[in-house]
């Protein structure tokens, strides 16, 4: 029985049970390296909101580095950004002895230079090509697109010089997230308030070419193995790495979803922005997933759940010699099927995705699983001889009520986007009907 449980579980979800893949067979998707946004912070009361911009970008999987003007440091300290970004913060042209041409290295690292908030002064310097501090020098040196979120007093905003500077910058391809009308720090009411943090984050992600099609949607992902206790020190589990589930969570976050990640124990960091719910046993995992499930738009059950658990977990360690018989004759009971249980509770607006690994007749067996578990979509893959756990690639077949479509071998992070594309498409089709 123990042998059965050990051998069968990892193959069940198929997430970490792929064929070894040849280089040629791998769809050419680069290993996922996060884009880098260089965030420029200038001297304005709204500088404190830059901290929220950092968080918003990080939630979408973006690496953020911060460069500040001297005036910005009057409003918010570099230590805040150092702590949030876990990166050095550039504050002076000559403050990085290890990088003698700091402005050049920063300029080259950036995929996007976002200045939020941007003062009238810095806008004017950028328009004139003045480079008299680390921020403006880097702006002049970078080839990355420049995105500016201005914030200032209404009269400064409407001043002919500021308007002209804005037009000049737009003429050079610089993009603006215009200030909003509202109550200003000086007591005036008018245009000049820093745009909403979400609007700034969205504009930055759009400039980086990120899709935000899951914004407003809630996504639940189960990931990793479950651990079933025999006694306080022993357990049965499986070799699931959790990579597929974590890739799904990361992809959903990058596309703007609110993500609940229910995870068994894995050696991975949860993506920034995901609500992580840690679970040990299948029963824990079901409880955590059930708490999140109502209100979720897409639920992806990528966990490799142990089908069986010891009938009773001993409260004290079973001793060699004393408890040999109990240890060798462990009794097992079936665990709940999390996917099937929650799929039975789903409402028409919810999309449920399951995973399956098959050794043969992949499409037929996946089709059967689709019906048996009440899922809308099954991500199936063939497993067999060269079974490898914890790989970064997967070769999957998407099976729904309409039929099956085979995908090329690709990285799990790329596959995550393809699965989400399919789930969103099905959700939209259903709404349109
Ligand atoms: O039946 P099988 O284990 O092959 O089904 C795999 C799918 O069902 C995966 O999506 C997995 O996360 C889910 N599952 C589950 N609870 C179980 C067993 C499997 O949610 N107890």
Helix- and strand-based class? Answer: alpha/beta
Number of strands: 21
| Widest beta sheet: strand line-up | 12-11-8-13-16-17-19-20
Regarding quaternary structure, how should these chains be classified? single chain
Head-to-tail CA distance between termini: 47 Å
CATH homolog superfamily of the largest domain: CoaB-like
Structural description of this entry:
There is one protein chain. By secondary structure, the protein is α/β, with parallel strands linked by helices. It has two domains: 10-31 and 212-318 and 333-432, Rossmann fold; 36-208, 3-Layer(aba) Sandwich (Rossmann fold). 36% of the residues lie in helices and 21% in strands. An eight-stranded mixed sheet has the order 12-11-8-13-16-17-19-20, with helices on both faces. α6 (120-128) crosses α9. The longest helix is centred in the last third of the chain and has 21 residues, at 412-432. It is elongated. It starts with a helix and ends with a helix. Cytidine-5'-monophosphate binds at residues 12-13, 222, 282, 301-303, 305, 307, 335, 337-339, 354-356.
